[in-house]
Design brief:
Blueprint: E1 27-31, H1 39-43, E2 55-57, E3 63-69, E4 72-81, E5 84-90, H2 94-99, H3 101-104, H4 119-127, H5 140-148, H6 154-168, E6 170-171, E7 181-182, H7 186-190, H8 194-199, H9 204-215, H10 217-221, H11 228-235, H12 243-253, H13 267-276, H14 283-290, H15 297-307
Antiparallel strand pairs: 1-5, 2-3, 3-4, 4-5, 6-7
Helix pairs in contact: 4-15, 5-9, 5-12, 11-12, 13-14
Length: 326
Amino acid sequence: MAGRFAPRSAPRAAVPRQVTTPEPAALTRDWTPPGPFDLRLVLGPLRRGPADPTFRMSADGSVRRASRTPAGPGTLHVVAREGRIEAAAWGPGAQWLLDQLPTLLGACDEPEAFTPRHRLLAVTHHRRPGLRLLRTGLVMESLIPSVLEQKVTTDEAYRAWRLLVRKYGEPAPGPQEYGLYVMPDARTWSLIPSWEWHRAGVDSKRSATILRAVRVARRMEEAATMELTEAMARLQVIPGIGPWTAAETLQRSNGAPDAVTVGDFHLPGIVGHALAGNRNADDEEMLTLLSPYEGQRHRATRLIMLSGNTPPRHAPRMTRGDIARL
């Protein structure tokens, strides 16, 4: 019919455009270790429990870790392939992490300096040729979780580290599917309210030690370039940091092969059992047994732990506390 128009169709609903955030560009570096190399053995001591928000170890053997470097936050992804290390890094600290990559992975370590004098150590040393002692060059990122581990179960310490880093840290640079967090900076640690330490299960003694340390964080970081004796003394200037905490820190930050852990609840018995059949050994006997390895005592204890020759448990585990319920 003249003058008749076809009915208009209903307007289409606007389809929202998918906005894709481009993946941040990574800096990369390859490195060839000077000898046999086991990435899991080398970087394993940096993981504070299976749910550590700063560290992921994948089924394919790759490692992702987030750090607060002198240049800022950074994320490092490391893969071992056919005797070569491939690394990618993101964030303001990316270049620093890649520059430090060989040092982190034990390039400055000297495993050949270790001479086994006990069959157990000789066998384990032969079976674990890829063990090298890492060196992060970062003191506070190892000192704070070591303080959290003082005189509590590992589960309690890991829980405290996880809760505090997730709440007061920041999402790490790089692909978000990694789900990593960078630990808080010194100022943020100092501003955590007392009740939040309590909720994380951290008693006032440990939280006060951390607060004293972060106030002089720069001075603590200087220990990363010191000789072991001087570095131990520097850390122990802080009340609440003793030989156990200092050694646990410097094993990671400085790659110190002689930083033997004294004052540990289990280690003397493990060393005593492995080297002398005495599961009731104390610190004094442990140091006597390790004296032939002067200069390499930490490496000796690592090898003992890796041997699997630990005394059978005949006492209950350390009781887990929960101050957050008090």
